[in-house]
Design brief:
The complex is a heterotrimer of chains A (211), B (473) and C (354). Chain A is mainly alpha-helical and 211 residues long. Helices cover 66% and strands 0% of the residues of chain A. Chain A starts with 10 loop residues before the first helix and ends in a 14-residue tail after the last helix. Chain B has one domain. Helices cover 77% and strands 1% of the residues of chain B. A two-stranded antiparallel ribbon of chain B has the order 1-2. In chain B, strand 1 and strand 2 form a beta hairpin. In chain B, helix 12 packs antiparallel against helix 13 and helix 14 runs antiparallel to helix 16. Classes of the chains: A mainly alpha (211), B mainly alpha (473), C mainly alpha (354). At the A-B interface, helix 5 and helix 8 of A face helix 1, helix 4, helix 5 and helix 8 of B.
Chain lengths: 211, 473, 354
């Protein structure tokens, strides 16, 4: 799996560990960060590093889409909302000490259980062999498109319907009738002609006026 | 490739889009249009389900869609119950300024989600159908947006539902990791015949069972149900409390039996815990409720416990009993909520137990309908609720779980108190204010039919049971 | 051109270094001209808008004012960088960098002609889309971390606007992708071979117009410059910045303008191809012109449009911007994607006959 250079350096491993450590540190910071805006920005960094890992897996379409959709759109809106909220940190931290004990116990138990079940003897490198590397003309985008519109077209359509429900729900819950909004009709604005607005009055310069 | 078997789904989706557009463009001042169109859609869908039924098991869309006897039966009931829901809720919605086209589109899309679940032979379509259903439900609960209670209910429903979906998905991903497939029949074969990693499978199973239990509203994953039932507008509670339970059966059956039958010994134990908790807690806590919607929520938890008993039996007859139980429960619950909606009016929810006082005197016919429904829910012979419990218990005893049957019977007797108390309130207490129910003709007609169906099924349970048995044999 | 250099470097450098060095040299060879263009674009802007408004524009520094950008740069370099006391320090400093970074990184996949491209990747178009969508972070971070009302208002406006227009922009690019059948920018140019009537501006006319207008909105240029609206919110997100930190925002804005213009030329105006291709004598007469010159000319045309817009149109109001983006551009692009799909399926000549 690893390509080694002439100096014996496994480059893709180095890159993997670089991105992986960024993912771990940044996602840790998402939880630890005191300021919610910082937390969101660390989440953005996590997504970025994940995209890097996906590129290592030859999933360049997914990686770039992750950046495009999550980083470029979803997280911006998220940040937008978080920035506008007036979050009281003291209230947020209120139950922290009280639940710290039980929380730690549960977390440690979960961690132990998951290492036991998902550890290397179950999902190790010998159980799950690495997929074969593709040639340079392999296009992940094309491969995805092919299965998405043939084998999985049904699932793809249902996913679209789910998004439709999300849109309906958002409009249903979010749209309030405007109270007293002044709106122009851009159509009529654009259709207006000179004759509707302007009347040219011919006046004799010498007779008219009051001077 | 036979797309015809998916005609009901395709039709309902197309109609949902048409109704959405029609409502947006011509809906102003014609709020009855979406309602009428939705009813027609559901009726036609019923027809399509029967007409395009392949009679044999057939798949489409590269194995992401299956049409078999189980899916046909479930779909018929899902669509039928949803039809009842729409009829029951019209006036309630109109009185509360919720009579909007979007509600009907959401109902249709939720029905679509449930139908997708009913015929899902694959983790992918199952999960997507579930999400479609859940998302529509969250939006429906939140629809009364000026009410703090509704908003709270929607928030709880959404957050807990998302966690449950996450658990389900996590379990599915682990199973995919072990078996290398999302297709339930492939998974079934891998689990049964090759030697996959048992530890991981059981670990994944825990998550899947937890997800299923949440969606069914079975204890100890029931916490959302009472708050959501109480907080949501009654029309939405009616919907959430009926048809999705049928879809929940599809979820449980497809995942646990179609996919993971090889792990039957493991999930039996988990389901026993669920069943005991649900039956015990549901029946006991229901007694303490003063709000009838909350009470029906706990009653629903208990009923889901009984339903799970049939699955624990692990035999075809057991599954049939379980299916029978689900279908019967959906019809009974629809009738019970319909009775609440019958008496609610502008500014009056009629959802307290005290509001039930003396209703039989004001309205003898519907008092009788409620009597039938409550006796049936309590499991008094010869009503249908008795038979559904009877079949489930018979199968569980046949499977050798006598102690489980004993617990179930004991708590059924405890729970009977809840339903008999409602009958007492309706028949023997005096109303505080004498107001006759003014409901639309169609509500009265369908509610009467609902009562009659429960009564008739009780007299002749063998017909529906025969259908349920035929599904699994 | 780079091959002999690489050979020579591998002679005395250990293995990965020659490759890295070559890549670095290529990056510098792209970034430096871009920054030079930015400098003289500011000069051009002041001159052109000056002439449009019947003024002369800068003419004091150097012959005919040609050294004006250098003087501006020196002035900005010499200025003090002020850190507001209550600002979120690290983010405040990261803001300008995050703004400039994507604006320059996007140049990696731009093909200057058939051979000259730094990274010829399959998903070039997606890469461009992803990077242009990141530009808003700089504005958001800068506006928020400044701890100033004006800056904050501006970053709110900017993010909403950018997100809205990104959708229309993305759809327009989907049209290009359908028409060209590839995400690779070089392939997209290849698909437009053969005279200016074969370029995509004709079959994709609505998308072409929408892409460029969305590009203007994405770069927060007039008439979509509500994020800077000096008459309403002083100068918007960079009101607290000074010196070189401010200059970075300035650089990014102009680098983005050049990028959008280049992309429009590549995707709709046939990139490095001559407009007279296949036109007999005219083609022969202009055969000596290198492809890159055509690309630069096309880009210059769009850059001129940017400046022309600024001198001509009054600023849009916020709700008008949203209306234009959501209710007009997005529906048109969706409809036109269907039209293009039909054209590709039925192989309408001269663009889509294989």
């Amino acid at each position: 799996m690893t390509e080694t250079g002439t100096m014996g350096l496994p480059y893709d491993l180095i890159i993997f560990y670089l991105f992986a450590s960024i993912v771990v540190c940044a996602s840790g910071m998402v939880i630890v960060a005191r300021n919610p805006v910082h937390a969101v920005l660390f989440l953005v960094l996590t997504f970025f590093a994940c995209a890097g890992l996906w590129i290592l897996l030859e999933a360049e379409f997914l990686a770039i889409t992750l950046v495009l959709v999550y980083v470029g759109a979803v997280m911006v809106l998220f940040l937008f909302v978080i920035m506008m909220l007036d979050i009281n940190l003291a209230v947020m931290k209120e139950g922290f000490v009280r639940y710290l004990g039980i929380g730690t116990v549960i977390a440690v138990a979960m961690l132990g259980l998951m290492t036991a079940v998902l550890g290397p003897e179950h999902f190790g490198i010998d159980q799950v062999p690495a997929p074969a590397r593709h040639g340079p003309d392999y296009s992940n985008t094309e491969a995805l498109g092919r299965v998405l519109y043939t084998d999985y077209v049904y699932a793809f359509e249902i996913a679209a319907v789910i998004l439709l429900v999300a849109i309906i729900a958002a409009i249903l819950l979010g749209l309030r009738k405007p109270r007293n909004r002044k709106l122009q009709d851009a159509g009529t604005q654009a259709m207006v002609r000179k004759e509707d607005r302007l009347r040219i009055v011919k006046m004799d310069a010498e007779k008219g006026g009051h001077s | 490739m036979n797309y015809l078997i998916a005609i009901p789904e395709i039709f309902i989706l197309s109609m949902a889009c048409i109704i959405l557009l029609a409502d947006a463009f011509f809906g102003r001042g014609r709020s009855g249009m979406a309602y009428g169109l939705s009813l027609v859609t559901l009726l036609l869908t019923l027809g399509f389900i029967v007409f395009f039924s392949p009679m044999i098991t057939e798949t489409a869309f590269h194995g992401l869609f299956v049409s078999d006897r189980l899916s046909e039966l479930l779909k018929l009931f899902i669509v039928g119950v949803s039809f009842m829901v729409l009829v029951y809720s019209r006036e309630y919605l109109a009185e509360r300024n919720l009579f909007k086209g979007e509600f009907y589109v959401l109902v249709l899309l939720a029905v679509l989600g449930m139908m997708i679940m009913a015929s899902a032979p694959n983790f992918l379509s199952m999960y997507l159908g579930l999400e479609l259903l859940s998302l529509s439900q969250y939006a429906m609960v939140a629809m009364r947006r000026d009410s703090g209670v509704s908003a709270e209910a929607a928030m709880k429903f959404f957050v807990l539902g998302a966690i449950a979906s996450g658990m389900l998905l996590y379990g599915m991903s682990l199973i995919y990791g072990v078996t290398g497939s999302l297709d339930l029949s492939t998974i079934h074969d891998v689990v049964a015949y090759s030697q996959p990693d048992k530890v991981v499978l059981v670990f994944a199973l825990v998550f899947i069972v937890a997800g299923i239990a949440f969606k069914l509203g079975a204890a100890p994953f029931h916490m959302w149900a009472p708050d959501v039932y109480e907080g949501a507008p009654t029309a939405m509670t009616l919907f959430i409390g009926t048809a999705p339970k049928i879809a929940g059966f599809a979820l449980a059956f497809r995942l646990l039996i179609d996919g993971l039958e090889g792990l039957v010994a493991s999930w039996q134990q988990m389901l026993i815990i669920l069943a005991v908790f649900s039956i015990g807690l549901g029946n006991v806590v229901a007694i303490a409720q003063t709000n009838i919607k909350r009470m029906l929520a706990y009653s629903g938890i208990a009923h889901m416990g009984y339903m799970v008993l049939g699955l624990i039996a692990g035999t075809a007859d057991g599954y049939a009993a379980s299916l029978f139980y689900t279908l019967v429960y959906a019809i009974m619950a629809a009738g019970a909520f319909g009775f609440i909606l019958l008496h609610s009016r502008q500014g009056f929810e009629s959802d307290q137990l005290d509001d039930m006082k003396g209703l039989a005197r004001l309205n003898p016919w519907f008092g009788l309908v409620m009597l039938v429904l409550m006796f049936s829910m309590a499991g008094v012979p010869p009503f249908i609720g008795f038979w559904s419990k009877w079949f489930v218990l018979k199968e569980i005893i046949a499977a050798g779980y006598v102690w489980l049957a004993a617990i179930a019977v004991f708590f059924a007797i405890v729970g009977a108190f809840v339903y008999l108390r409602i009958i007492r309130l309706i028949y023997f207490d005096r109303a505080e204010e004498e107001v006759t129910a003014e409901a639309s003709g169609e509500l009265k007609l369908v509610l009467s039919l609902n009562g009659l169906v429960v009564l008739l099924l009780g007299i002749m349970p063998s017909f529906l049971l025969g259908v349920c048995l035929a599904v699994f044999h | 051109m780079m091959a002999p250099l690489q050979m020579w470097l591998s002679g005395w450098l250990p293995e990965p270094l020659p490759l890295i060095l070559i890549i670095l040299i290529k990056i510098v060879a792209i970034v430096l001209p871009v920054l030079g263009c930015v400098a003289y674009l500011t000069f051009a802007e002041r001159k052109i808008i000056g002439y449009i408004q019947m003024r002369i524009g800068p003419n004091r520094v150097g012959p005919r004012g040609w050294l004006q950008p250098i003087a501006d740069a020196l002035k900005l370099l010499a200025k003090e960088i002020i850190l507001p006391t209550r600002a979120s320090k690290i983010l405040y400093l990261i803001g300008p960098i995050v703004t400039l970074g994507p604006a320059l990184a996007a140049w990696a996949v731009i093909p200057f002609d058939d051979l000259r491209v730094l990274a010829d990747i399959n998903a070039g178009l997606l890469y461009i889309l992803a990077l242009t969508s990141l530009a808003v972070y700089g504005i958001l971070i800068a506006g928020w971390s400044s701890n100033s009302k004006y800056a904050f208002l501006s970053c709110m406006r900017a993010s909403a606007q950018t997100i809205s227009y990104e959708i229309a922009m993305g759809f327009a690019l989907v049209g290009v992708l359908v028409a060209a059948g590839s995400l690779n920018l070089r392939e997209i140019v290849h698909a437009q071979q053969g005279g200016f009537l074969n370029w995509f501006w004709l079959p994709l006319l609505p998308l072409f117009v929408i892409y460029f207008i969305s590009g203007v909105a994405e770069t927060n240029r007039a008439p979509f410059d509500v994020a800077e609206g000096e008459s309403e919110i002083v100068a918007g997100f960079h009101v607290e910045y000074s010196g070189m930190a401010f200059a970075l925002f300035f650089l990014a804005e102009y680098a983005n303008m050049i990028l959008i213009s280049t992309l429009t030329s590549i995707m709709f105006l046939g990139g490095w191809y001559s407009p007279f291709q296949g036109m007999g004598p005219l083609d022969e007469m202009t055969a000596w012109v290198p492809g890159m010159v055509w690309l630069i000319l096309k880009t210059a045309f769009f850059l001129f449009l940017f400046l022309w817009f600024r001198a001509t149109f009054p600023r849009y109001r916020y709700d008008q911007i949203m209306r234009l983006g959501w209710k007009i551009f997005i529906p048109i692009t969706i409809v036109w994607i269907l039209v293009i799909g039909g054209m590709v399926v039925f192989e309408i000549p001269p663009w889509f006959d294989a």
